[in-house]
Amino acid sequence: MAGFKISRRRVLAGSAFLLASTALPSIGWTQAKKGGRLVVAADSEPRNLNPAIVASNGVFFVASKVVEPLAEASFDGEGGLEPRLATSWEGSEDGLTVTFKLREGVTWHDGKPFTSADVAFSALNVWKPLQNLGRVVFKNLEAVETPDEHTAVFKFSKPTPLQLIKNALPALTSVVPKHVYEGKDIAENPANNAPVGTGPFKFAEHKPGEYYRLERNDKYWGESEPQLDEIIYRVLPDRAAAAGALEAEEIQLAAFSAVPLADLERISKVPGIRVITEGYEALTYQLVVEINHRRKELADLKVRQAIAHAIDKDFVVKTIFLGYAKPATGIVPQNDKQFYTPDVATYGFDVAKANALLDEAGYPKKDDGKRFALKLLPAPYFNETKQFGDYLRQALAAVGIDAELVNNDSAAHQKAVYTDHAFDIAIAPPVFRGDPAISTTILVQSGIPDGVPFSNQGGYKNDALDALIAKAAETLDPAARIELYKEFQKKVAADLPLINVAEWGFITVARDTVKNVSNNPRWAVSNWADTYVET
Amino acid sequence: MNRALRLLRRRLIGSIPVLLIVIVGSFLLLEAAPGDAVDAYVASVGGDAGMIEALRQSWGLDASPMTRLAAYLWALLHLDLGHSVAFSRPVLDVVLERLPNTLLLMGAATALSFALGTALGILAGARPGSARDRLLSIGSLALYAVPGFWLALVLTIVFSVELRWLPLSGMETIASGKTGFARALDIARHMVLPVTSLGLIYLALYLRMMRAGMAEVWRMDFTLAARARGIGRRRIVLRHVARNALLPLVTMLGLQSAQMLGGSVVIESVFSVPGLGRLAQEAVGSRDTPLLIGIILVSAVLVIVINLLVDIAYAALDPRVGANEANA
């Protein structure tokens, strides 16, 4: 009763649709059909759904539709970015100031206007002090001036490269409403589990263990957006269930490889379902062998080189990732367009060379054919990291290194590797987030306190590399900064503080009826404003 | 009724030491597992040293284990089950939200396996050693041997993916706006496959027990006497043999209830039913001690209550039990 409204516009649109459907039957005037409900699979329910505090893909997957960043990653936008809440950004010569012009006419889901005060509050009270990634990137942010309602001027205490800030915009700058958070405990605010934002969808409800429901924001600033009426995230903890749910049409899309790689070949043949590998270009995961340099054998470069030569990266890509990955050449992934250089030392698969290097290093094979023993801890977060653990054990056995596999759950792995350093080699899946300074340099930098996940906890210290990282952090000229990071990649490949094995994006499996899927490099964690379901 | 209340009180008082051991035991076990709740959390989101320290402080994990255990027990004395760190909500809310789902799933599955198992057991036990008996015994054993997840997956592929007769997973149609009878019907449709998967597995327990009990009763003198008196076979099977073989099954039902409340992690995961089993698994994974102990406590109290009900049912089925109870 209440939902049945006739407006002039709808009648017009309806008659236009009728006209078009008779005039252009072959084109299929589906664009005119707005709305629809998209049901997708979710495998986890984050404890805190506030993307300004927890910048992680699990949170973004749901929250990025509700809370928007200043800019989003884009395949063809200028500098790889597409404006969201900010319309332009400009850095000063001295690198101490970045000025953002903000979008006008934007309102929060509760009806209050969005202004520069919200950006200033988010930056100073949330991103800088509380956010897992922002604590690093915004550590020198001193103040945010708001000369008018639509201008925010970031003031840094030390020169900060605009390039870094730009690369950080999609993931690190989710803006939350000041009026909801001010004066209360931000970390425990109830809005962290029912976010209020400016995005194309409003947070409607969360039934723990069952689903999240987002509904259309009719007052969204984007023209004729969003297209969908509703997005539902069904919690499907069992990975085999996602494939079945797609086939039974109970869900229409499964992102982040919710459908296991082994099922992809079969499901790609099901009519009406397609397998999509695009849309994760800015979320590249890296398969890395972490090395504890406190072990005297592993402190020897020759031993590390031997381990690198013992790994058949092509085999790993083909057998473990079933081809849905690429062999890595270094610490920056190949699909990064700004920083990547292939011009680094490489370590081809060569068992004879690995054996020779180990002999040279002074660790000959003993009578039992073994040189020394190592403790190997694969991260439990992905099937692939666990499987690579099994592979690496065999690859090392082939060169006389006896690796003992220790399998832990998440909490135990986190403590063993990153706090207690009770490992010799570990397998980690760090993420490259568009700029080496966000989450990549800390993988090799020294002086990081114990307990920090995905950081150098292997006791590696290289003064030249540390100096290079420090210099790049304050180099303002983009070209010069890129050169420094190319140098950084060379040094890492030459000295092997860790070994990069492969890099992968995730897979989306969707029904053909879902349109505008994977049309930006962070699609799964972007706002889905233009996505729709054809009916 | 008065007797039942006395029994209840005695049972509850008697179970306090058991509950205490369970609480301290689970606490120490989780304490001994490497990594704490903050480790589990930062493993999924990352963070720097300052954030980790702040989290430990705000989640109260910086105190010594004994201090935390004492604080927990003190709060428990005030009937406060504490705060779940993984869910950032009161433990009681989280547990009570899932409890009805588990009760429904496992209650229905137990009822199915009990009813069907007993009925088939009577069929098998009516003529022990016959071809029908062998067929039923072998069939139920085969079902018992099948891994739960496999049976569940096969059922979903056949009935949800291929035939599309039944929904694949979940408790009910999401955000359907259904109420009353329509909603109950919707939930029932969703429960068919998980209940069948679980029920078929436990069916064998009741079938075998019923059959074995009946085979024994057949040899007893009173059965012979009944036959000699020329009572019809059907009447002997139902009134004399089956009824006397039924008692051990009721005991079994009480024992099974403990297992039932633990939930079935596998079935709950495959059918994405948000129940206690999955919750307990998540609590262990996230090292959420208050939540895990909360689940165990709520389950323990329910098991005590169910066993009490079984005892009362016993008295109804067998007058001798009631007489003994009165003397005890």
TrEMBL record, chain A:
The keyword ATP-binding does not apply. Residues 81-428 form the Solute-binding protein family domain. Keywords: Signal. Gene3D superfamilies: Dipeptide-binding Protein, Domain 3, Periplasmic binding protein-like II. Residues 1-25 form the signal peptide. Pfam families: SBP_bac_5 (PF00496). It is found in: Periplasm. The keyword Flavoprotein does not apply. InterPro entries: Peptide/Ni-bd (IPR030678), SBP_5 (IPR039424), SBP_5_dom (IPR000914), TAT_signal (IPR006311). Belongs to the bacterial solute-binding protein 5 family. This is Peptide/nickel transport system substrate-binding protein. It comes from Aminobacter niigataensis. The lineage of its organism: Bacteria, Pseudomonadati, Pseudomonadota, Alphaproteobacteria, Hyphomicrobiales.
TrEMBL record, chain B:
It comes from the Bacteria. Belongs to the binding-protein-dependent transport system permease family. Residues 99-314 form the ABC transmembrane type-1 domain. It is found in: Cell membrane. It is a multi-pass membrane protein. Pfam families: BPD_transp_1 (PF00528). The chain crosses the membrane at residues 12-30, 103-123, 135-161, 187-207, 245-271, 291-310. InterPro entries: MetI-like (IPR000515), MetI-like_sf (IPR035906). Keywords: Cell membrane, Membrane, Transmembrane, Transmembrane helix, Transport. This is Peptide/nickel transport system permease protein. Its main location: membrane.
